[in-house]
Amino acid sequence: MQGRPFLGAAISEAIAFVHGTRDRMDETLETTRWISDGRYHLVRSFDTRPPADQQTLLSCYNSNGELCREIRAMKAAGSLTDTQRKLWGDSRPPVMLFDTQGDPWCVRNLASDPAHRERATKMLAELE
Asked: How far apart are CA 75 and CA 38, in angstroms?
């Protein structure tokens, strides 16, 4: 596979988008593709069933600690905040769009925001 530099002094020309992928990490499955224009980050999830943070809740390796037990107890009690449910809910949206400048922690999904519809459509087309 051939690539080209997208950071540092070796960049030969400006690029519009950087593409990425994630398919598996340890025993958790992840089927996502993403694209970034340097400010906006779009993630396409092909399997929306696992929570965004599988490593915490589902991993045999990480999930036995006190914090993970507390998160699962809060989830069972229905006491997770909206932000926490985005990480540890029962599913994830198929498309997520984040403004990494205004929202560096990527908490606010702009994919369904009418003000960002054109950007999301363009980025999804480029990703495809």
From this structure: 34
Q: Which amino acid is at 64?
A: N
Number of residues that this document lists for the chain: 128
Q: What is the pLDDT of residue 80?
A: 93
| 126 alpha carbon, distance to own chain's centre | 17
Taking only the tens place, the pLDDT of each residue in 80-93 is 999 888 888 888 89
> Amino acid letter at 84?
Q
State both tokens at 100. 């990494």
Residue 61 has pLDDT above 70, yes or no: no
pLDDT, greater one: 114 or 89: 114
Contacts of 55 (CB under 8 A, 6+ apart): 25, 26, 28, 62
Three-state SS sequence of 20-88: EEEEEECCEEEEEEEEECCCEEEEEECCCCCCCCHHHHCCCCCCCCHHHHHHHHHHHHCCCCHHHHHHH
